[in-house]
Amino acid sequence: MISSFLLLLILIILPLSSSSACTDSVHSGYSYDVSLHSDLTVSFSTTSTGSSTDTASTLSLLVCSKRSSWFAFGFGNGMSFSSVLLYHQPSSSSAAKVVEEKYISGYTKSSITDSTLLSSTSSLNTDITGTTYGTCFNAAIPYTTLSSLNSVIFALGSSSSSSSSYTLSHHSVASTATIDFASCSLSVSSSSKNSVVLLHAIMMSVSFIILMPASVTIARYFKGSKRWIKYHQMIALLVVILVVTAWVRMLVWGGRGNMKSPFMHKTVGLILIILAVVVMPGLGVFRPKKVEPVTEEVDGMTVERVEVPSTPNNNNIEEEKRYKKRKLWELVHKNTGRFLIIFGWFNCFTGAVMAAKYVDKSYKILYLVFGWVILCWIGLWAFKEISRRQGVQNVMVLQHEAGGLKLDEQADAKVNEEL
């Protein structure tokens, strides 16, 4: 199970950030190529009016996307207050696709306005087409200081067979990067909004696929340990911390993120948060004391029970109330835990589907990883349940045999007395 946890963590963390070096350009008229995303490449060259590239007058770009959707490339430290070149359909699906310069002042569609800050000249490149490079546009950007353009931003729309995917909508991939156009080095930022979503996925997956099942397993099958309740409570507290952190991050950054959560995922997630953060800790705080063991006579033998008899003694009303209160608490606590695990798994799978759709198709492997970890838990529970039931049966047989032996001894003693 530990190996499953490590594999899960590694598979989720790896795509958070990436870096690569420039390569010699395969396109005529450009010096270098850089890959910002598996579906987006940028080729560039500089034209200098002085002895140093830092006084270059023009940065020539060729931006290519393999996706059948809108895409953008520009300059800035984030989505707000950045200037970008946008390839899209301005209005209806019948409109021609164009490259336009835009200024982005916020996180809403209305904050995107026409601009000429870059003073660029850009156009579609019809000479480079096909599956190798996708759709490309040229741009020539004049400037005084080359290093002022090192901070770049890019975004990709969702791929679709429909032409409407070229109409500007919420992006599925977006990030910032640092390109040193002088030395030709690249670093794609790990602080993109996708990383916020992925950190949310890490914390929720660890909580509902690893920690919560572990907490339930300890409570059900390892009560023989004197410290089982401490481990159970510590894991439950860690789940609360992770779930709250993951939720707050999405609450703050989710509206600015790179993918929109379906209504079902958000609704189920909200219910899970309420149960995990409010209901379960509340049940833990107001946990009724368990009814003390009582004894009764069965067939002439004194038998000790950990619960009151199935038909409580009507003369002990207080004990009967305690018994019923404890049984009700156990019913709510156990079934809430089962609900959290089942629907937590469901939401982890819907989250993996969104990650594969909006972030990277390679996240489809999470279907297998989640499924494998869940099967491990189910297999462990089945084994422990069978062993537990078999153990109960063996105890019952031993108790029956011991009781029969004691009754036989009592009968023999009575016969001897009569004789």
UniProtKB/TrEMBL annotation:
Its main location: membrane. The keyword Zinc does not apply. It is found in: Membrane. Residues 199-352 form the Cytochrome b561 domain. Residues 1-21 form the signal peptide. Keywords: Electron transport, Membrane, Signal, Transmembrane, Transmembrane helix, Transport. Gene3D superfamilies: 1.20.120.1770. The chain crosses the membrane at residues 197-222, 234-255, 267-286, 339-359, 365-383. SUPFAM superfamilies: CBD9-like. InterPro entries: Cyt_b561/ferric_Rdtase_TM (IPR006593). The keyword Transport applies. GO terms for cellular component: membrane. This is Cytochrome b561 domain-containing protein. It comes from Triparma strigata. The lineage of its organism: Eukaryota, Sar, Stramenopiles, Ochrophyta, Bolidophyceae.
